[in-house]
Amino acid sequence: KFRLSTPVYKELKPIPWGQLEDIKDEPDIASIMRSFYSEDSALKVMLEILGKMNLNDLALRLNKDLQWSNHIFNFSCKKYRDVQRQIKSRLKEKFQCIFETLPKQGKTIFLNDIYTELYITEAGNGGVNNEHAIRQIETEFWKNASPEHTIKCSDIFKPLPSQRKHIRTVLTRGIAGIGKTVSVQKFVLDWAEERENQDMDFVFTLPFRDLNRMKEKQCSLIQLIHRHFPEIKEMEKILWENLKTVFILDGLDECRLPLNFKDNETWSDATETTTVDVLLTNLITGNLLPSALLWITSRPAATNQIPPDCIQQLTEVRGFNDAQKEEYFTKRFSNKVLGNKIFEHIKTSRTLFIMCHIPIFCWISAAVLEKLIDEEVNNEIPQTLTQMYTHFLLIQISLKKQKYQGNYVRNSKLLLKEDKEMILKLGELSFHGLEKGKLIFYEDDLESYGIDVQNKNVLHPYYGVEKQEQCEVTNKHDVKEEKNNIFQMCKFIHRLSKRKRASLPTLHKSAIYLALLSENGHLDLFLRFLLGFSLESNQTLLEGLLTSTRNANWSAKVTVKYIKKTIKVDYPPDRIINFFHCLNELNDHSLVAEIQTYLKARNLTDTKLEPYQCSALSFVLLTKEDFYWTRTYLCKCVANILLSSMGRLDSCNLRDSSFELVASALKVTNHVRELNLSYNVLRDTGLTFLARQLSSPHCRLQTLRLGNCCLTEVCCGDLALLLRFELRELELRDNDLKDSGVKLLCGGLEDPKCGLQRLG
């Protein structure tokens, strides 16, 4: 102790005697030395003191041990760097290219060359939107992106400016084809190429599709990683807790593991063997490798498999905004003239332009239009979804023949005739899957419809086939249900052609009835395609599948007349809007033009509109870019409410004066169940307008979100009255309600009629 309190090295200060005086045990002295000096400095001091005490043998032995420890440390560091370099090399090779249907010979498409940053935001914590993905896209089109904080995929683990928390687990949701997997690919590639996130030691991708294969197996977490990344075998004795490791679990919606968070045993040893399900649940909850970071991606419907308290950040991929759409097509084609020509064509069709909000639809459109323009087939350039997907089907089959048979066939009739049986079988499978909400099929599913899963050459243009230990056949390129619908339409029409007494309009009426009965609009796109296929131009493309195309124009006219009649019936607004989309697929715009003329001639705020006219207003605003009047933006917000049972008007730059019109929109529909008005300048006056309508007995609103709406205690009386109705959830965060306002709310909560379940 005396020598520690006197100068030993000139550059190192002695430890004050007061800190050493009462210490008697050697471990306590060592602890003081470690806290006062750095590890290296403490060792130097100890060697010097041992020398001055003539304990040279002990000093020599300590010095030898130190040299050996340094050797082991340097060896481990070298091994760590070698393994890290190998894994980066593996990931770079795996993720640097984008694999399209069939790249041109000698042409490789690099992700960095065409990658367009996606629109990713923090997601709300509301319920899952069960509406059809296409309807969600059309609703999302109205969202004003500018006020929201967007997140780059490379910053997915970084807190937002308003956040002060450590983020361990991120859950990113998004509909099919919106860009979740490509975002993962870009994140990993940037790390592997040392562009981003170099503070992370390792990034391991473990797709749920691959983890499904190990459903019945047992292993340790280290063995699981080793199975996917053999390079880490050299590091099995490394303390993984000391490393910053990222696990990316892509495709939760494809998971076939039970993920039994409730009953699985607690597991904290990364080297001990157990089931893969136990490993995953404990990795997600943080019992296993709590220092690791996790990124999980999923379609919205599957996100409830993860307990909310395990997620520190919930994000949402919303696809491309308008500027990003243009950027994608500019980057996608090395021939800039061709890229501009294709994008200009897409802008001429509002339906196609809105659908390009989905990156995979941009990819499909690029493939179709490039081929048609390249072959100078200008009379066949698609204007509708039906036309686009029909051409895409033909291109896929043509590529299959080119790849496996070596011959190129352009005649669509010959192409479809040879694959007719397979297409119709897949159509039946797809339709039954659509009815059940099933988008991923396995080998037993295909075999039950007489499909030879061993013949991958036949399946190639429709599904990616992966032969797994469980004989699993999955949709390799995440082929969307919209494509499945094409197969189903062909099957439907083929059946019809064999029924002598049946007519195409009769089939259309049956399909319209089925679509009206569907709870969440999951048959809306089905209906659009079915009606679109009744056009003679589309039937001509499908001649190889259809036995007859007689009276196509007559059938279309009869169906148009029936739809116009149905539109004026009091059906939910979202279904009426879909009927307008159906008319668009049938190339009939007369009713839209008629209503558009009517609306232009009147002052909307002073005009009482019929429910179907409000739906028409929504459709016109959605599809007609040039339709304008002074309050266009407010009317877009009204359209948003009418488009969905989940009215999302958050961050729309609305002010208190705007909410009179928003309230009036609620008068014509009782279908809205959730309304999000957060991050608008609602103020107390705006809430007064809303409260009048929301307290109506016809209103069925259950969830109201008013976060950060500039509300004060003045409005709390109106809010308390709302609690007497059907409201189940009310969000009021970041408002200045004061104690007096809270007391008023408490009074409403004590009302026997109050059914509120959550107040936040």
Structural class: alpha/beta
Rg over CA atoms: 32 Å
How many structural domains does the protein architecture include? 4
- What is the CATH level 1 assignment of the largest domain? Alpha Beta
DSSP summary: helix tally: 32
> How many beta-strand elements?
13
Q: What is the chains' assembly state? A: single chain
- Please, what is the CATH homologous superfamily of the largest domain? P-loop containing nucleotide triphosphate hydrolases
How would you describe this protein?
InterPro entries: DAPIN (IPR004020), DEATH-like_dom_sf (IPR011029), Leu-rich_rpt (IPR001611), LRR_dom_sf (IPR032675), NACHT-assoc (IPR029495), NACHT_NTPase (IPR007111), NLR (IPR051261), NLRP_HD2 (IPR041267). Residues 1-68 form the Pyrin domain. The protein is α/β, with parallel strands linked by helices and 760 residues long. The protein folds into four domains: 1-54, no CATH class; 84-127 and 146-317, Rossmann fold; 412-567, no CATH class; 589-759, Ribonuclease Inhibitor (Leucine-rich repeat, LRR (right-handed beta-alpha superhelix), Alpha-Beta Horseshoe), CATH 3.80.10. The protein is 48% helix and 6% strand. The protein has 32 helices and 13 strands. Strands 1-8-2-7-5-3 form a six-stranded mixed sheet, covered by helices on one side. Strands 9-10-11-12-13 form a five-stranded parallel sheet. Strands 4-6 form a two-stranded antiparallel sheet. Helix 30 (683-694) links the parallel strand 10 and strand 11 (703-705). Helix 14 (359-374) crosses helix 15 (385-404), helix 22 (524-532) runs parallel beside helix 25 (573-585) and helix 30 runs parallel beside helix 31. The longest helix is centred in the N-terminal third of the chain and has 40 residues, at 56-95. The radius of gyration is 32 Å and the shape is globular. The model is unreliable at 142-147, 464-483 and 627-631 (pLDDT under 50).
